[in-house]
Write a structure and sequence with these properties.
Order of helices and strands: EHEHEHEEHEHEHEHHEHEHEHHH
Distance between the termini: 13 Å
Shape: globular
Helix content: 25-40%
Strand order of the largest sheet: 2-1-3-4-5-6
Structural class: alpha/beta
Number of helices: 13
Number of strands: 11
């Protein structure tokens, strides 16, 4: 069987592609678009004519193009993430040419049906995968007093609420710190060009510099692929966003035995255990502070077990293999 994979950003597919390429009897080719809406039409046409199944990552311009150039007798699978849903592309896709649209959570499957009017039979859920084996590393001493956030751009990630949690904790005990692993907002020109985004980060960074409770307590670490090593220092992973489709950072932290702490963004309780979800930053800080050393270790073990059961690479790759090869 011939499988074509296409998209402008394949970072969520790395290990899944390794798995698919290792399957006997499956020939995999990739059409990497150098930008969201830029590609080599001849190369894309060659892939569309060659493949038995085309899997398009992101429901953007690539999904539009492949839905309009589908070879008769082939199958087309598109994965839709959060940001595309409010863009122009879903309504430009020829949904009659698409066999399945994959969302990463039940909430976004519902939102996709409501927003697009696409047939319910074409929309399904396969969660994000987590490399639980890669992330399973021993914590360094002091990790139980360090909060972690991965990705703080755009402003809806709400670093300001993470700072609220940290301030409340440090009012009790100055051992608490926050590590942030993210690209800075000014590296995303489409974010930095928005005055409201600049104003948000100006206020947040000024607060880090001027709050007595935050002095020396917030570390901004370089964005990069060294997440497994970085998570060894993190005892609690925060998810304070206004909205998420899945929030992979939470699951990655759990796989490292960091205790998750989430605010109730829509759909969070359909992905993660309600015990990890807190109504306010104050309630989140109280729950974190109430964990003694033994309770923290037990909670981390439970978190890792849950991620392994539901989101392990082996389980999710099996779901993708069944969809792509068997339909």
């Amino acid at each position: 069987m011939r499988l074509g994979v296409a998209g402008h950003d394949l970072k969520f597919l790395t290990r899944l592609l390794d798995h698919l390429r290792a399957l006997p009897g499956l020939d995999v080719r990739v059409d990497v678009w150098p930008a969201l809406a830029r590609h080599d039409p001849a190369a894309s046409r060659e892939l569309a004519d060659w493949a038995d199944v085309v899997f398009v990552e992101w429901c953007g311009p690539a999904a539009v193009w492949y839905s309009r150039h589908k070879r008769r007798g082939s199958r087309l699978v598109v994965r839709l993430h959060r940001f595309e849903l409010t863009g122009p592309w879903p309504r430009q896709v020829d949904i009659d040419a698409v066999d399945r649209v994959v969302c990463v959570s039940p909430c976004y499957a519902r939102r996709t049906r409501e927003h697009t009017g696409w047939p319910e039979s074409k929309i399904m859920v396969i969660p994000n995968w987590v490399d639980t084996a890669q992330l399973d590393r021993p914590k360094v001493p002091g990790a139980d007093f360090r909060l972690g956030m991965i990705g703080i751009v755009p402003s809806l990630k709400r670093l300001d609420l993470g700072l609220d949690v940290l301030e409340k904790l440090r009012a009790r005990d100055r051992r608490w710190h926050l590590s942030v692993k993210s690209r800075p907002p000014w590296e995303y020109w489409w974010i930095w060009n928005k005055p409201e985004e600049r104003a948000h980060y100006d206020a947040v960074l000024r607060r880090v510099q001027t709050s007595p409770l935050l002095e020396g307590a917030v570390v901004f670490d370089t964005f990069g692929p060294d997440v497994p090593g970085w998570l060894r220092r993190i005892g609690h992973v925060l998810s304070t966003s206004d909205l998420e489709s899945f929030h992979l950072a939470t699951a990655e932290g759990m796989a490292s035995r960091a205790v998750p702490a989430l605010l109730p963004w829509e759909g969070a309780d359909e992905i993660y255990d309600r015990r990890w979800i807190h109504e306010t930053p104050e309630a989140m800080a109280d729950a974190i502070a109430d964990l003694g050393p033994d309770e923290w270790r037990s909670a981390g073990e439970l978190a890792r077990t849950q991620v392994h059961e539901f989101f392990s690479l082996e389980r999710v790759a099996g779901d993708w293999t069944e969809l792509l090869l068997s339909g």
